[in-house]
Amino acid sequence: KAAPVLDHGFVRVIDYMGNDAAIVQAARVSYGAGTKKVNDDSGLIRYLMRHWHSTPFEMCELKLHVKLPIFVARQWIRHRTANVNEYSARYSIMDREFYIPEPQHLAAQSTVNNQGRGAVLEGAEAARVLEILKSDAARTYDHYEEMLSQDGQQGLARELARMNLPANIYTQWYWKVDLHNLFHFLRLRADPHAQYEIRVYAEAIARMVADWVPVAFGAFEDYRMGGITLSGKAI
Amino acid sequence: KAAPVLDHGFVRVIDYMGNDAAIVQAARVSYGAGTKKVNDDSGLIRYLMRHWHSTPFEMCELKLHVKLPIFVARQWIRHRTANVNEYSARYSIMDREFYIPEPQHLAAQSTVNNQGRGAVLEGAEAARVLEILKSDAARTYDHYEEMLSQDGQQGLARELARMNLPANIYTQWYWKVDLHNLFHFLRLRADPHAQYEIRVYAEAIARMVADWVPVAFGAFEDYRMGGITLSGKAI
Amino acid sequence: KAAPVLDHGFVRVIDYMGNDAAIVQAARVSYGAGTKKVNDDSGLIRYLMRHWHSTPFEMCELKLHVKLPIFVARQWIRHRTANVNEYSARYSIMDREFYIPEPQHLAAQSTVNNQGRGAVLEGAEAARVLEILKSDAARTYDHYEEMLSQDGQQGLARELARMNLPANIYTQWYWKVDLHNLFHFLRLRADPHAQYEIRVYAEAIARMVADWVPVAFGAFEDYRMGGITLSGKAI
Amino acid sequence: KAAPVLDHGFVRVIDYMGNDAAIVQAARVSYGAGTKKVNDDSGLIRYLMRHWHSTPFEMCELKLHVKLPIFVARQWIRHRTANVNEYSARYSIMDREFYIPEPQHLAAQSTVNNQGRGAVLEGAEAARVLEILKSDAARTYDHYEEMLSQDGQQGLARELARMNLPANIYTQWYWKVDLHNLFHFLRLRADPHAQYEIRVYAEAIARMVADWVPVAFGAFEDYRMGGITLSGKAI
Ligand SMILES: Cc1cc2nc3c(=O)[nH]c(=O)nc-3n(C[C@H](O)[C@H](O)[C@H](O)COP(=O)(O)OP(=O)(O)OC[C@H]3O[C@@H](n4cnc5c(N)ncnc54)[C@H](O)[C@@H]3O)c2cc1C
Ligand SMILES: Cc1cc2nc3c(=O)[nH]c(=O)nc-3n(C[C@H](O)[C@H](O)[C@H](O)COP(=O)(O)OP(=O)(O)OC[C@H]3O[C@@H](n4cnc5c(N)ncnc54)[C@H](O)[C@@H]3O)c2cc1C
Ligand SMILES: Cc1cc2nc3c(=O)[nH]c(=O)nc-3n(C[C@H](O)[C@H](O)[C@H](O)COP(=O)(O)OP(=O)(O)OC[C@H]3O[C@@H](n4cnc5c(N)ncnc54)[C@H](O)[C@@H]3O)c2cc1C
Ligand SMILES: Cc1cc2nc3c(=O)[nH]c(=O)nc-3n(C[C@H](O)[C@H](O)[C@H](O)COP(=O)(O)OP(=O)(O)OC[C@H]3O[C@@H](n4cnc5c(N)ncnc54)[C@H](O)[C@@H]3O)c2cc1C
Which long-range contacts (CB under 8 A, 24 or more apart) does D44-51 make? Predict the structure, then answer.
């Protein structure tokens, strides 16, 4: 049921509200008799998408359970139009699970794009990077546990000990969002400019959305993902 | 199924997501092992409410179909944390339905509260008020129809003709909101300071919420509606 | 100082925060050394607009005082990402000021667009429409006053009496919004699909924004207002 | 000008809009003649605060530059009603600056509160914790630099290398928020239940707000911070 993402992460649908029909239903409240022209549902949904009539898409809602590395969570949480409950590292002890990239994703800094990746690292360098990531993860986690509790010691507060953990440790949360803002998330995060590690989450969610609201997703793909914006000057 | 409100209005549940258990489920993601102390669900929900831990309540969502006078809609729409699709008076023709208060709700301006009502109007004055409201509604609506279409004329655009209609005409919308922000709405609009005509909608919704999430609603009633805030000085 | 709009309305700048330089300043915090390539400010702002990097535009804020007819206010308030304080018809008595369109704006319902206007009304029909709008405004306002206070009567509560007033009466508010969401408002409301009566407000504000943040406004005009979006299929 | 917070952090005011008078000005638009009763400004502001009339407080805006450890940033960013531009670890290289608590803040896990701290750690344990935090910070940062660039190697992309850095490394951002939501932030984060490391930021900001809008801050302190909420049953 949960779609696996990266080495230890996943995305799982917890609940949803509405579907393609719910978008149409809401639009028809607004437009009443005025929707005669666009009399099939699929045409209406595509019309709404094309003209940025976004409020009917807000009538659908999706709730996910996600497990993800903290550096991905830090990008994701910037999308403010969602509801979130995250695992608390003040209350609870973090699990010993770290994201370690597969060798083919160990890329060099891009030489053309300051915010991106270039060629894959060569064997020796890649090996050294993996060794660093693994050993630092292991050592910092050992120290985390040691700070939390050692025989004969008080044990550092969890909210303090966690500061020693690197950004590739996994956290988890419930994340709930309406379909309009989910499309906005997908447009930004399933995009080639997004970091690979969040893009794979966006792609996993996109597949779920395509199943859930196929017509709306088709319109989104066509007008938002695949579309391009030309400036007035360019025209 | 729809709860009637005022003379022609209603509130009807279209869909909902989650329930009391969904609040607990989300909170337990956050608090993990830390929730052992509050081990029953009802205690946990009351704890969350008491300490303003509001994000687990955002995990529930309610979608309503509402028919309401425009002057009520103007107060309601000020709650920005909701999703709305309203009947369009640009596309469609408004129905001939106006809110005419019952005599016992025809109150005088309050002499103590600048934003409220005082005693009920006496018979003759009340009768005169009712007669004004009814005849102006009828006349303005007749004129609305006349402007829209008369034999041998072009017919004024709907978006213009509607400006002649008074604020007690009914409109309708789909309104979707999460439970935390719904409680906030209820706190402000089921309150004695709110205008009677929106309060009856809030009260109708409150009854639906009490059925839907009885534990959360009980906590809300106890800590928000019935509660009072004392200032530091007062303590 | 206030720009007049429609027959009795206006838009007036109360305060603002930031300018073109503030957008650049915020972007440079994010991008640090990465902004070397786009080393002039104007190029950076255009780059941000082109790539939908919207958060630096949120760093500017504008506060306006607006006087506008209620049917325009009802469209405007749907933009939820703003801060509003409106004149209260529960506390205070509304002024006797109504929007009466100029003859050249008295258009017929469009025959091609269900949500728009077509040809201007001919002389006799236009005259009849104007007469209706004026006399209904006058009569409903006379009745409003009569309900509020007549010799020897208690006077109906303001919050009730106002329901007799038509949607072309003027209200006023303070409206504060960040530049990103203001651009979104302008894109939707300075657009030909928007109703003329809100479009003139959007256009008045657009002129103020062009003075305030000329570079950002230029980029907005070029990439958002003048631009077109092509679907994947169209490409 | 910047207020230092923790060992390397700070809070600095970049810009602000409005003041106590702006709150009153906005409220008087709403309440018009109705505000006669509360004729002094300070009384009006206190009245608004007491009755949760929050929209006039949204008319003031504050923009800060903040430098803070990542684990604090992760708590802070959960406040969605703000505008943020953060330093990008995809574009730029992080500085070698880590939060190392002072010994008197190295507390044990609370034995009564699952989400809090108890007694300060004793000498030997505290020393061991400090040594761990310092050496792991140094080592992970050395490895970060090594992964980014070594003689004769390509250098790992910044967006990947940063995943090795622990949560006590410093980041920075511009943060802009309206006064109502800032008060909400302060109520939650200057509270004893908040983690010490974010509380000191909230307290530094509170002092700035007290200078900026002394009357509103006084009302906030009295009715929100110092106040208590009694449940209906308790009354
Ligand atoms: C002591 C403490 C412990 C905490 N522990 C945890 C924890 O264990 N796990 C965890 O996940 N979080 C935890 N939090 C974070 C908490 O759940 C909130 O996310 C955070 O305090 C921000 O509060 P807020 O949502 O009220 O603020 P804001 O996001 O600024 O929102 C203010 C108000 O605006 C409205 N609003 C804004 N955005 C939206 C939106 N997208 N949808 C609907 N309404 C919106 C709501 O009415 C909201 O109350 C903790 C916070 C504190 C203070
Ligand atoms: C030509 C035209 C015709 C229209 N016809 C109709 C009609 O017939 N019926 C009708 O009901 N409306 C109609 N509208 C109004 C329209 O549906 C929007 O409500 C309005 O344009 C505001 O747009 P917005 O929601 O993008 O703006 P804002 O409310 O300012 O929101 C901007 C963005 O912020 C986010 N956001 C803000 N608040 C929330 C929230 N509470 N939940 C989730 N995300 C949020 C969303 O990403 C949103 O896109 C029409 C508008 C136009 C321009
Ligand atoms: C008795 C009464 C009298 C009133 N009188 C007047 C009056 O005279 N004039 C008048 O103008 N209004 C009046 N109002 C309306 C009032 O000012 C609010 O607009 C309304 O109650 C909605 O409340 P809200 O903003 O808390 O709700 P929501 O808009 O649902 O917001 C909930 C919370 O989310 C956050 N939030 C949501 N959107 C934004 C945003 N765009 N920017 C920042 N934060 C956001 C805030 O933290 C907010 O508190 C009155 C309301 C009541 C109940
Ligand atoms: C490739 C890429 C690179 C990035 N690089 C950086 C970087 O270097 N630094 C950095 O700081 N960020 C960076 N970001 C994050 C980016 O700035 C946004 O924070 C993030 O993409 C969320 O987008 P959003 O604000 O549109 O979404 P949401 O927060 O979901 O908002 C959707 C819409 O709702 C409205 N809205 C919601 N909340 C508010 C609010 N509180 N006030 C006003 N309007 C609101 C706005 O109209 C907004 O457009 C990057 C993002 C991407 C995709």
Answer: D45/D20, D45/D215, D45/D216, D45/D219, D46/D215, D46/D218, D46/D219, D46/D222, D46/D223, D48/D23, D48/D219, D49/D216, D49/D219, D49/D220, D49/D222, D49/D223, D49/D224, D50/B231, D50/D219, D50/D223, D51/B193
Task: Tell which atom from ligand 1 comes closest to the C-alpha of D82.
Answer: 30
Catalytic residue among C78, C117, C139, C189: C189
Inter-chain touch B83–A27, beta carbons under 8 Å: no
Please answer yes or no on whether A88 and B33 come within 8 Å at the CB atom. no
Please report the ipTM that was assigned to this predicted complex.
Answer: 0.97
Q: Cα(A79) to centroid of ligand 4, in Å?
A: 6
Percent of all residues in chain B with a pLDDT value above 90, rounded to a whole number: 83
**% of chain C at pLDDT higher than 90:** 83
Any chains having at least 3 CB pairs less than 8 A from chain A are B, C, D
Identify which has the larger pLDDT, A173 or B117.
A173
pLDDT tens for each residue of C52-91: 999 999 999 999 999 999 999 999 999 999 999 999 999 9
Catalytic (active site) residue B189:
yes
Q: Which residue of A has its CA nearest to B24?
A: A85
Over residues A106-144, the pLDDT tens digits come to 999 988 877 789 999 999 999 999 999 999 999 999 999
3-state secondary structure B96-163: CCECCCCHHHCEEECCCCCCCEEEECCHHHHHHHHHHHHHHHHHHHHHHHHHHCCCCCCCECHHHHHH
Binary contact (B91, C114; C-beta < 8 A): yes
